[in-house]
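Table S2 (text version). Query chain:
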Amino acid sequence: MKTFIYLSTCDTCSRIIKELGISKEDYHFYNLKDQPISKELLDHILNQGIALDDLINRRSRKYQSEGWGKKDLSKEAFYELLLQEYTLIKRPILLDQNRVFVGNSKKVVAAMKEYLENE
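Corresponding structure-token output:
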């Protein structure tokens, strides 16, 4: 399963798609705004060794406005929030068989690019 999870209105995601040179012929593009993340997909990502904390977009306006960083929420509560609120999911996520890359930092994008070049 080759999947690229992104937000269609995110300029950073669009830039990364171009930088990686991936297309809809090679990857299933999963737009979080049109289709909330499913429990099965979230579980699959977590089962690949990605920590729940690594999926939370702490720079999200909703995260900050709701003060979730100041609240002592359980992992279960954050899990439910990720299923309900697409803006809390750190993006993009490149999911390719048994490899998962999360985020848009230079280091993560470089790792994505290197992985795709050696694929």
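Notes on Table S2: DSSP finds five helices and four strands in the chain. Residues 106-117 form the longest helix (12 residues).
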